Amino acid sequence: MTWPKQRPQTARRRTGPRESAPGGRAPGWAIRGTGSHLPRRRVRSEEVSRSLGLEPGWIERRTGIRERRVAGESEASSDLAAHAARRALADAGLGPDDIGLIVLGTSTPDELGPSTACRVQALLGARHAAAFDVAAACTGFVYGLQTAVGWLATQRGAPPCALVIGVEVYSKFLDPGDRGTAALFGDGAAAAVVGPVPSPYGIGPITLGSDGTRAGDVLIPAGGGRRPASAETLAGKGHTIHMDGRAVRDFITATFPRLVADAVEEAGIKPADLALVVPHQPNPALVASLAPGAGLEPGQLAIAGHDVGNIGAASLPYALDTALRARPAAPGGLVLLAGFGAGLTWGRTIITWPPT
Length: 356
Description:
Blueprint: E1 28-37, E2 41-44, H1 45-52, H2 58-63, E3 67-70, H3 77-92, E4 99-105, H4 116-124, E5 130-134, H5 140-154, E6 161-169, H6 179-182, E7 187-197, E8 202-203, E9 207-210, E10 218-219, H7 231-235, E11 242-243, H8 245-267, E12 276-279, H9 284-289, H10 315-326, E13 334-341, E14 345-352
Parallel strand pairs: 4-5, 4-6, 12-13
Antiparallel strand pairs: 1-7, 2-3, 6-7, 8-14, 9-14, 10-11, 13-14
Helix pairs in contact: 3-4
């Protein structure tokens, strides 16, 4: 099932970030609010097809992507991320002072240093928050969840909440003449507030993985310490995304079914028991094709890339936000998050959804 466009964002009842679990037990951790933000400019796939010399409809037929959003010249990742974070905070009924940690996943930071998360902290006025980035490409949101949960579990006294954000401005790192990337990628941000919830609700064990031997499958080869910016790297388009599309597709089709199978086996459930499965969103056609091999029904999958394309670290949380706003998860519903991306990286977790 393709999830409808998100409904207007409304704040949930404020429950406060510093509640303890009943009876003084240590709380679990769950997503308590989500939010997303897209740039205003829309670029239809027909326009991209023309610029690439492709026949009309080629991109949409092959990928399901109708359009993508493109950031303005003065917009950076931190700007989009801050907007998404504010919406997630409003959804959770919280404010910037309730946040103790900001973890941001991106492959398109504002600059090599400082972290884009620090820029977001300043934009939000989250004066109590530590802030840093994670670089796990399209798996960045799942890596960020693991980091946030681990940090929250170590805090003494009444626990604060954490913000986990995914954001990309891929349009600034694309070769407009490369059909393998220009047809797929867009810009956007999405965020989630992670905070305490009583048992039995919350985020289950998070499994992460990587295979650095395949780092060359998707990368921006220049601009770092190995190939610093130069006239040569600029002329050679070394600052744009390079992707082996066939290798990446093979990785995804092999990895996603394994992530689902391992998750349900560890949880002692069946694929049919999952209320919602939210994978990274490389493109709608590919995501839809993954269901049969994973033992899933089409209606279990969140698919949200038709109007945004692949927005990298923001794809998974954007799909989650869109799905929840179309159909809120029932208390106790099982939601599987499955990320996979450059690095190569992957990660997954099952969340027992809490009451709102």
